[in-house]
UniProtKB/TrEMBL annotation:
InterPro entries: DUF4440, NTF2-like_dom_sf. Residues 11-117 form the DUF4440 domain. This is DUF4440 domain-containing protein.
């Protein structure tokens, strides 16, 4: 059995790998990091399944130029974890450059001894 601190570090490492893979266009890494039933919401309000999101990355509908994800806290309960923080990014969406600055919530689940992203949801900053 792992300690809570080990779990937090493993989730943070998975978050780092996910953002690195987004920037690198590493679809193989993202395929491993996203749970089969993943739900990925975007700041536009569009929500993709794992397959839809990977297809959009493959077609270069989304091209991440810069992405940062400062984390405020990680909560682990059993085989589930939430990462509360922020996402700032420069991304091309269907060829149109956009700058994103949102609060973010990522939900991770542990399956087969590894952490996978189950859901991601951005939220507009308070005005």
């Amino acid at each position: 059995m792992t300690s809570r601190d080990d779990d937090v570090q493993a989730v943070l490492a998975a978050e780092d790998r996910r953002y690195r893979a987004m920037l690198d266009g590493d679809l193989a890494a993202l395929d491993e990091l996203l749970a089969p039933g993943a739900s990925y919401a975007h700041s536009s309000g569009v929500r993709d399944t794992k397959d839809e999101y990977l297809a959009k990355l493959r077609s270069r509908y989304y091209v991440y130029r810069r992405a940062e994800h400062p984390v405020e806290r990680v909560e682990v309960t059993g085989d589930a974890a939430i990462v509360v923080g922020r996402m700032t990014a420069d991304v091309d969406v269907d060829g149109v450059p956009k700058t994103i600055d949102n609060l973010a919530l990522a939900v991770w689940t542990r399956a087969g001894g590894r952490w996978q992203l189950l859901a991601y949801a951005p939220t507009s900053l308070p005005r």
